[in-house]
Amino acid sequence: MKVDGLLLYCRAGFEPELAAELVDRAADAGHPGYARTQRGDGYVSFFCDRPDALDRALPFDRLIFARQKLRIVKDLPGLDPQDRATPLLAALESAYGGQPDVPVFGELWTEHPDSDTGKPLAGLARGFANALRPLLRKSGWLTAQPDPGRPRLHVVLLGGTHLVLATSDPADSAPWPMGIPRLRMHADAPSRSALKLEEALLTLLDDDERAKLLRDNMQAADLGAAPGGWTWVLMRHGMKVTAVDNGPLRQALLDSGRVDHLRADGFSWQPPRTLDWMVCDMVEQPRRVADRMATWLREGWCRQTVFNLKLPMKKRWEETRICLEGFEQAAHRTLEIRARQLYHDREEITVFARPAAR
């Protein structure tokens, strides 16, 4: 199959950051390319002379500002609103050299960008999916039941008469439509910030890591804890938490018997022994936060950490690179670092880090 380029979803307003990240990372990998986007679109298209090399040059798990990574099969503008399916099926046959003998795709996701112009297309996307799915199964493109072991087929609606036909590799993409995990705010959570840590643990750790690293009676610290959203998430995973903040915590956390509230400055406090986890969501300059997080790993005060870096309004990709490179340098050791702008983040990115395995 010929791939024209990549289409990547992002938070609306962060298209320039994602575009800059893609250009830099592709160039670093020896495959320079160019991005197309407009601020507010909620997606970026990326192209290079070797589109077959883009998967290796831009692995999804290394990207920070991308929510989803799709391979573009065909851009289809100017469609007849009465018949969008016929040109789509023709594009598939052209890309794959005719109808398949064995179904190629295990799922169909009909989507739209998460943007002001994309959201009104949600109803059309649902209706088109219901009409298209049986056609794809009848013509042999789609399995009768979802098969997560096969590539996904994506139909991205950019307008009523404009769609992009794309595919994704389940091993090199987000496992949720539009790259958005559907998390619900728990009634007992002290704040909506709990969703950020829940999403971070779901997105930045795999199933095996969650089973191994989120266990009963692990010891954790939450720096800048008040009112306790991230402490609450750790406590729900069975951990014992030292919540460090001069501000108040929700009383229910203190009543749980699993939380000790220490009124202290998160930037100066250090634990008396090595902890399993340290998490931090303090509103502070990102370089200062990164430097303090590096101290925790350099001194061996924690085995792994999740923290947020609040980004400036301008040059956010540049600041991200500076912070993450400085973070590892200040740790004085090789780190395993995973970072992502989560769906529940705003002007920030979330980072998971631990010493790299020897």
UniProtKB/TrEMBL annotation:
<feature type="binding site">
    <location>
        <position position="265"/>
    </location>
    <ligand>
        <name>S-adenosyl-L-methionine</name>
    </ligand>
</feature>
<dbReference type="Pfam" id="PF18125">
    <property type="entry name" value="RlmM_FDX"/>
</dbReference>
<dbReference type="Pfam" id="PF21239">
    <property type="entry name" value="RLMM_N"/>
</dbReference>
<keyword id="KW-0949">S-adenosyl-L-methionine</keyword>
<feature type="domain" description="Ribosomal RNA large subunit methyltransferase M THUMP-like">
    <location>
        <begin position="83"/>
        <end position="167"/>
    </location>
</feature>
<dbReference type="GO" id="GO:0032259">
    <property type="term" value="P:methylation"/>
</dbReference>
<dbReference type="InterPro" id="IPR029063">
    <property type="entry name" value="SAM-dependent_MTases_sf"/>
</dbReference>
<feature type="binding site">
    <location>
        <position position="281"/>
    </location>
    <ligand>
        <name>S-adenosyl-L-methionine</name>
    </ligand>
</feature>
<dbReference type="InterPro" id="IPR011224">
    <property type="entry name" value="rRNA_MeTrfase_M"/>
</dbReference>
<dbReference type="InterPro" id="IPR040739">
    <property type="entry name" value="RlmM_FDX"/>
</dbReference>
<dbReference type="Pfam" id="PF01728">
    <property type="entry name" value="FtsJ"/>
</dbReference>
<dbReference type="InterPro" id="IPR002877">
    <property type="entry name" value="RNA_MeTrfase_FtsJ_dom"/>
</dbReference>
<feature type="binding site">
    <location>
        <position position="245"/>
    </location>
    <ligand>
        <name>S-adenosyl-L-methionine</name>
    </ligand>
</feature>
<feature type="binding site">
    <location>
        <begin position="226"/>
        <end position="229"/>
    </location>
    <ligand>
        <name>S-adenosyl-L-methionine</name>
    </ligand>
</feature>
<keyword id="KW-0698">rRNA processing</keyword>
<feature type="domain" description="RlmM ferredoxin-like">
    <location>
        <begin position="5"/>
        <end position="70"/>
    </location>
</feature>
<keyword id="KW-0963">Cytoplasm</keyword>
<feature type="domain" description="Ribosomal RNA methyltransferase FtsJ">
    <location>
        <begin position="191"/>
        <end position="283"/>
    </location>
</feature>
<feature type="active site" description="Proton acceptor">
    <location>
        <position position="310"/>
    </location>
</feature>
<protein>
    <recommendedName>
        <fullName>Ribosomal RNA large subunit methyltransferase M</fullName>
        <ecNumber>2.1.1.186</ecNumber>
    </recommendedName>
</protein>
<comment type="similarity">
    <text>Belongs to the class I-like SAM-binding methyltransferase superfamily. RNA methyltransferase RlmE family. RlmM subfamily.</text>
</comment>
<dbReference type="GO" id="GO:0008168">
    <property type="term" value="F:methyltransferase activity"/>
</dbReference>
<keyword id="KW-0489">Methyltransferase</keyword>
<comment type="subunit">
    <text>Monomer.</text>
</comment>
<keyword id="KW-0808">Transferase</keyword>
<comment type="function">
    <text>Catalyzes the 2'-O-methylation at nucleotide C2498 in 23S rRNA.</text>
</comment>
<dbReference type="InterPro" id="IPR048646">
    <property type="entry name" value="RlmM_THUMP-like"/>
</dbReference>
<feature type="binding site">
    <location>
        <position position="193"/>
    </location>
    <ligand>
        <name>S-adenosyl-L-methionine</name>
    </ligand>
</feature>
